[in-house]
Amino acid sequence: KNKATDEACEKMCYERECCYLEGAGNCKVTDKDWCDGSQLCLGSNGSEKNTQSDKVTDSTDNDSIFEDVCSMDYLAQDGGSACSDLCAYRECCGEDNGANCIKAYQEFCDGYNLCKNLDNIGNEGDDGVMAACTEENVETVEGLAKCKDACAPYQCCWTMIEENDCSAERPECPFYAEPCQRIGGTLTGTGNTDEIDPPAKFVPSGYAETLEIMCSETSLQTAYGLEMCREACIPHSCCFGDEAETNCSDDPRECDTYSACVNLHDFEGTVSQVEAATSDEIQAVNMAFDLA
Questions:
Q1: What is the pTM of this model?
Q2: Do the Cβ atoms of 218 and 281 come closer than 8 Å?
Q3: Residues 25, 92 contacting (CB under 8 angstroms)
Q4: Could you tell me which residue, 283 or 244, shows the higher pLDDT?
Q5: Residue 42: helix, strand or coil by DSSP?
Q6: Which of 14, 58, 91, 199 has the smallest number of Cβ neighbours within 10 A?
Q7: What separation in angstroms does the CA of 239 have from each of 12, 30, 48, 242, 260?
Q8: Which one, of 116, 185, 104, lies nearest residue 147 by Cα?
Q9: Cβ neighbours of residue 134 under 8 Å, at least 6 residues apart?
Q10: Are 179 and 229 in contact (CB under 8 A)?
Q11: Model confidence over 94-103: pLDDT tens digits?
Q12: Where are the domains of the chain?
């Protein structure tokens, strides 16, 4: 025996841990060929396993394994390869795969919940957002609409309504911050995403007219209209600073596009009653936003 052989054997046995589980978690029934030969991982008396899982008896240690390779930071570095492998070994811990072993083998499954982070990278949703929200795509009305649709499931990541803000709870928010900010809005509570540049340069024609509707005095008198106007204008609020050093526009035309946002600036500087919007008012704002 040598170190290389031992490591290869240990890796093989580690990958096939589910072949030894008792009850519903055993994968030998559904994948016999894959488990063939794995009996060599058993001890000399045929009952004691010599597998990696025996070394992970402390749930804290097991959690740390998942935290190391399934954290969003690590997934961003390696694309999820290591986490995907680790989660595949513990597939029986999943709740809906018909062979759940989490009750019988709790320590084996501790930390498996972090496998859900794989849903947030490298999948159709992530690729779809990136493809729909390219700089070139959002320069057209049709392209911006596609970007808006792709980002819709993640609106709570950058909403300005505090009770709807999920940016601190959803680890995938940073992945969608940059592309989705091209449709307007700002991301709060996610640390390093504060450095993302606002999407001022990606504005389709007719956007100024759309903002005039969304940020009209009538629209701002409703909670819905106020939210929609905030979403569009907050990233460009520096255009309306009273002092010269707070004005951030390098291109005067950029702030001209958002001139209707001054209504929001003035509105929030006064005490105004915000009322529930009528269906007609919501429809008018929706139609305007669909064009944005």
A1: 0.31
A2: yes
A3: yes
A4: 283
A5: strand
A6: 58
A7: 61, 63, 70, 9, 11
A8: 185
A9: 179
A10: no
A11: 755 455 666 6
A12: 3-117, 124-195, 207-291
